[in-house]
Amino acid sequence: MSSDVKLPIYFDNHATTPVDPQILDAMLPYLSSKFGNAASHSHSFGWEAATVVVTARKQIASLIGASPNEIVFTSGATESDNLAVTGVAEACKSKGNHIITVATEHRAVLDTCMHLERSGYRITRLSVGADGLIDFDELKAAFSPQTILVSVMAANNESGIIQPLEEIGGICRERGVLFHSDAVQALGRIPLDVKKLNLDLASLTAHKCYGPKGCGALYVRSGVKISPIIHGGGHEGGMRSGTLNVPGIVGFGKACEIAQNVLPEESCRIAGLRNRLRDRLLAELEDVVVNGSMEHRLPGNLNISFLNVDGEALMTAVKDIAVSSGSACHSDKVDPSHVLKAMGLSDEAAGSTIRFGLGRFNTEAEVDYVAARFVDAVKKLRELSIA
Ligand code: PLP
Predict the structure, then answer these.
(1) Is the pLDDT of residue 387 over 70?
(2) What are 218-248's pLDDT values in tens digits?
(3) What does DSSP assign to residue 318?
(4) 78 lines ligand 1 (CB under 6 A)
(5) How far apart are CA 368 and CA 374, in angstroms?
(6) Cα 301 vs. chain centroid, distance in angstroms?
(7) What is the best residue among 106, 163, 185, 330 to mutate for testing ligand 1's pocket, by most ligand atoms within 8 Å of CB?
(8) Ligand 1 touching residue 157 (CB < 6 A)
(9) What is the distance between the alpha carbons of residues 108 and 106, in angstroms, rounded to a whole number?
């Protein structure tokens, strides 16, 4: 069964992605001989580091249709989300105290909003349908004169559902309200043009597009004012102090350059693999439900409930295949996924759900192996529960 594939198989590319060898090669010199601090203006070590940071800023900006001076480097998207939401809340507090977000957002947005709520901000959490999408009428009705920010993620890390950012951004622009998106799962996977999507702020991270962990960015549209959450040396236009992670930034830039070159073909290939997996699981098993819209979904995502099967038991039965039963970002918790619950799944259905995340390095042989192993494991677990 496993002759064509190397075990273990990684199908959890929403949690993180393997580092692309080309990206590692680009980073390595900046972890050894080229160790300068990009803020050292008085010698060649610093100039060399500053030069590669300029290049990376251009590569990242180019992938999202931004200007290089609109990219603020951070430690990752958790920080970018915190900076966007708290930074706007603080900077716009004389204008209002109301923020609109969605029940299915990542914890980095939801928990930041909850924190602000405790200090007097009002938070509206929009619902989603069974398809995972928000409703425009509910969004329009949520605005008040105090609304200062709308935060809606580009693509969900569990369901893979892609929200219609262009329309949402248009609704925000008409009302003069800032629009932020956690675009982590979309970057490098689907086209993401901040101007076309009417975005004012967008959170990005390198490790979901084959770059290193611990390096992210916040796109801040030129002219948008946010308050910093980290104070210090005034780096990044005063929006994010701290010595720049030069090797990480070089890797992030390279990741974006590669993504820009391979994007349409790669997405197509990955969607083909994902569809092959879906078709086999649906054809060979009964009581299998794909959660959310297939049409508005990331190419590599498949979120499936294997009814009457415990997701944790299923993952244990296929230990040589890395998948997830919920969001990897809070996988230490056993609570049913807040995303699946918001989409209307019962606790039981959420508990029988597996998230497959396919990526750049997956192959057709791996898909066939994974499909066969899951079909076999689901059948056996169902037989056991009847016995
Ligand atoms: N937002 C989303 C949608 C994510 O999937 C993740 C991933 O873990 C994060 C934010 C947090 O990103 P980071 O790991 O860079 O802090």
Answers:
(1) no
(2) 999 999 999 999 999 999 999 999 999 999 9
(3) T
(4) yes
(5) 10
(6) 12
(7) 106
(8) yes
(9) 5
Is cis: bond before 29, omega within 30 of 0?
no
Where does the pLDDT of residue 4 fall: very low under 50, low under 70, confident under 90, or very high at 90 and above? confident
Q: At how many degrees (to 10) do helices 246-284 and 44-64 cross? A: 30
Tell me if 208 sits within 8 A of 187, measured CB to CB: yes
Distance 344 CA to ligand 1 centre (A): 23
Residues with catalytic function: 329
pLDDT at position 348 over 70: yes
80 lines ligand 1 (CB under 6 A): no
CB neighbours of 42 closer than 8 A, spacing ≥ 6? none
Q: Is 329 in the pocket of ligand 1 (CB under 6 A)?
A: yes
- CB of 140 closer than 8 Å to CB of 171: yes
Pocket test for ligand 1, best of 101, 157, 181 (most atoms within 8 A of CB): 157
Q: Distance between CA atoms of 367 and 11, rounded to whole angstroms?
A: 9
**How far apart, in whole angstroms, are the C-alpha atoms of residue 86 and residue 114?**
11
Residues in the chain, overall count: 387
In the chain, the amino acid numbered 260 is Q
Is residue 205 within 8 Å of 80, Cβ to Cβ? yes
DSSP 8-state code for residue 155: B
Surface-to-core class of residue 187, CB atoms within 10 Å of its CB (0-12 exposed, 13-18 middle, 19+ buried): buried
Which among 144, 180, 366, 173 is positioned nearest to 277, based on CA atoms? 366
CA 94 to centroid of ligand 1, rounded, Å: 30
Q: In which residue are the tokens 């991270």 written?
A: 205
Q: What tens digit of pLDDT does each residue of 126-147 get?
A: 999 999 999 999 999 999 999 9
What does the alpha-carbon distance between residue 278 and residue 274 come to, in Å, rounded to a whole number?
6
Of 326, 324, 321, 328, the residue nearest 368 (C-alpha):
321
Q: How far is the CA of 328 from the centre of ligand 1 (A)?
A: 9
106 lines ligand 1 (CB under 6 A): yes
Q: What is the phi/psi pair of residue 117, to 5°?
A: -60, -40
**DSSP 8-state assignment for residue 346:** -
- Angle 238-97-226 (CA atoms, 0-180°, nearest 5)? 10
358 vs 288: CA distance, rounded Å: 19
Is 74 touching ligand 1 by the criterion CB < 6 Å?
A: no
